[in-house]
Amino acid sequence: MAITFFAEGVKLPAIKKRETGDWIKNVAGIYGKKCGDISYIFCSDEKILEINREYLDHDYYTDIITFDYTEKNRISGDIFISIDTVKSNADEFKVSYEEELHRIIIHGILHLCGINDKGPGEREIMTQKENEALVLLSDKK
């Protein structure tokens, strides 16, 4: 069981892999989950659009797509993150690239833990949970 980081067509972000992995496991534990195999694949806007069209039948760009392979309380999945959109979101929300990257990294984990963001009121709950997780990361620094 491992948390791995890959890049496809982009440069792998400068992530402190051990620290980030420990943080992910800590957040999952808060929700009563253990980490199985979790792969982060950092890619371009064009790659994430291709994935969105091919697998989800969506014709738009997004910052993250999470494929959930969770079984019982062991979360597993492939998490695709568009570095292009992370950068533009950081500018739009006036936060650092690093903060936005960590927000999106944990966003995928929160999805695997069962937190949704599409229904009424769910976006606000997701944002709150992201903020709580980001505090845990900043406490480690």
From TrEMBL:
Binding-site residues for Zn(2+), renumbered to this chain: H107, H111, D117
Single GO MF annotation: metalloendopeptidase activity
As to how many cofactors bind and how, the note says: Binds 1 zinc ion.
Query: Which keywords fit this entry according to its UniProt record?
Result: Cytoplasm, Endonuclease, Hydrolase, Metal-binding, Nuclease, Ribosome biogenesis, rRNA processing, Zinc
Tell me the superkingdom of the source.
Bacteria
Q: Which family does it belong to?
A: Belongs to the endoribonuclease YbeY family.
**Function, as annotated:** Single strand-specific metallo-endoribonuclease involved in late-stage 70S ribosome quality control and in maturation of the 3' terminus of the 16S rRNA.
- The protein here is known as Endoribonuclease YbeY
Q: Which species?
A: Coprobacter fastidiosus
